Amino acid sequence: MIWVKYIGLSALAMLVACSNNNDVAGSSLETENSIAFHVKLANGENASKAYVIIHDSKYFADDADLNSTQHPQTDENGILELDSLPRGNYIVEVRGLQDEQEQKGATTFEITQVDNDSGKVVTVQTGIPASFEGKAYTDKYPAWVMIRGLEYRVPVDSQGNFSFESLPEGMFEFVLVHSQTNSSGATVSQILTEEEICVGCDGSGSVILVDKTAPPKDTVSKDTVAADTTDTDTIPKDTLKHFVFDDFENALDNGEIKDWYTAFSKYASGSLEITDTLSDREGYVAHFKCQNDSLYNWTLMGRYLGGAVDMSELDSIVFWAKGTVENYVSFSFDIIESDTTADIQSGKSWMHIPLTEEWTRYTVTPSNLLSVDSNNTGGNIGWDAVKDKVTNLSIFGGKGGEFWIDDIEVFGLESFTPKTSSVKN
């Protein structure tokens, strides 16, 4: 028997684990050890002549060592039948047309045991492809971003930007890779980082990939400022205005946290402490723990800036962090206005940052912040709407877990100077 374990990756992918006698009507699935794919369009119709692309789940576009198949097409019933595959984990992507518009879908399946039996069916439903963009922080070039199990590969430009024009929706492993040619003429690839990212999820239109193989910045002796500016700076290093927003060394007053607060929705909770007990970090750091049963609830640590601050000239905010937060943390520039008669719209501009369990330097720039959608998802009204009147900075804790943060620095400004007073939270 072929045992097929179905694991959904796309919000539009429907996998059907069929019983031994549940074959697709009109198809021939009696070949021993066979596997069939049934492709449906978003409108429920069978996808004839759809391309079916199958790869090992660890495959990525410049890796020639993992097995892959050719790109066969489905028949008039949306069926493609293949001979049995070896044991392993696979990703199948399908590409079809509905009303002359391209649709895509993808899902994973696992073959755990092969024996004599009739074939099984994996059903994949397509949907409208999603565009996706991001920022990669690395000093190693040329660099590429690939997706495990899929045939997509895009370059990282000199500013660290990358973009995919058309991807199936779902959870995928994004891989940042440095490729170079050795003395023998062979291409050698180094994986710099991998992150699990949801394509097509709310707020997932942008992502940051950080080179985990890179040594910490700002350690060379010739630096004239404690911390250099980010890779996106257009001003030479050590000349851009900057200040330390909080290194948490003076965050306590008689044992009480002075400037930061916590806030959370009805079905969530959060706690903040300032601690100096970590073995892998000198001095004091902020430690935030949160519990949250849904992305629709929220929990955060925040800091009131004393009023509305004009951050139009902000270059970036840089900080060190690590954590075991489910999903990601979100760094947010907030307008919190309690006077409902004031001609100011409350809201935020933010970006989502997946953390690792090792201390990593992260950078937030205005260009990395999420674009505004028609629903203002999460209260996101966009950078242009908040940049000249930011009242609070917040770090949201995702769906739960804990994280540590330290050495928050601001580049492009000399200080956060309020121009008006407002309300803390």
List the helices and strands and how they pair.
Blueprint: E1 4-7, E2 35-40, E3 51-56, E4 79-82, E5 88-98, E6 101-111, E7 120-125, E8 130-137, E9 143-147, E10 153-155, E11 161-167, E12 170-181, E13 187-199, E14 206-210, E15 242-246, E16 252-253, E17 256-257, E18 260-264, E19 268-275, E20 285-292, E21 299-309, E22 316-323, E23 329-335, E24 347-353, E25 360-364, H1 383-386, E26 390-396, E27 400-411, E28 418-420
Parallel strand pairs: 2-7, 8-14
Antiparallel strand pairs: 1-6, 2-4, 3-5, 5-6, 8-11, 9-10, 9-12, 12-13, 15-27, 16-17, 18-21, 19-20, 20-27, 21-26, 21-28, 22-25, 22-27, 23-24, 23-26
Structural features, described:
- With 425 residues, the chain is mostly beta strands.
- 1% of the residues lie in helices and 45% in strands.
- It contains 1 helix and 28 strands.
- It has one helix spanning 383-386; strands spanning 4-7, 35-40, 51-56, 79-82, 88-98, 101-111, 120-125, 130-137, 143-147, 153-155, 161-167, 170-181, 187-199, 206-210, 242-246, 252-253, 256-257, 260-264, 268-275, 285-292, 299-309, 316-323, 329-335, 347-353, 360-364, 390-396, 400-411, 418-420.
- It is elongated, with a radius of gyration of 25 Å.
- The chain starts with a strand and ends in a 5-residue tail after the last strand.
